[in-house]
Amino acid sequence: MSTNYEVVQETDFVSRIVDLYSDGRAVRNSVKLAEREGSDFRPPEHRSLVHGPFLKYANEAPLISITEEEFNGLWESAIDKPWPPKG
Predict the structure, then answer these.
(1) Which is it for the CA torsion 55, 34, 86, 70, positive or negative?
(2) Taking the mean position of all CA atoms in its chain, how far away is CA 17?
(3) Half-sphere exposure of 79 (CA within 13 A, CB side)
(4) What is the secondary structure of 14-53 as a DSSP string?
(5) How many CB atoms lie under 10 A from the CB of residue 20?
(6) Mean pLDDT in runs of 10 for the chain (87 residues)?
């Protein structure tokens, strides 16, 4: 599996994620989709999908930049993260 993150670098805010699986599936999640899981009482600027400093630790492994258009293409090809989770 590989994961693609949409990150606002100035605020270290992860707003959308697309997971790509080896079987060809693409599953997306976003701050808006995560609201299905219940209320998030954190201030809006802290409602990142990844808790804590993302860029600080993500830089320990090489990140590959893609364009906004490329990310949006992945986003459009993906299905929403299932809710409630199965299992």
Answers:
(1) negative
(2) 2
(3) 6
(4) EEEEEEE-TTS-EEEEEHHHHGGG----S-GGG--SS-S-
(5) 16
(6) 91 93 96 87 83 82 89 97 81
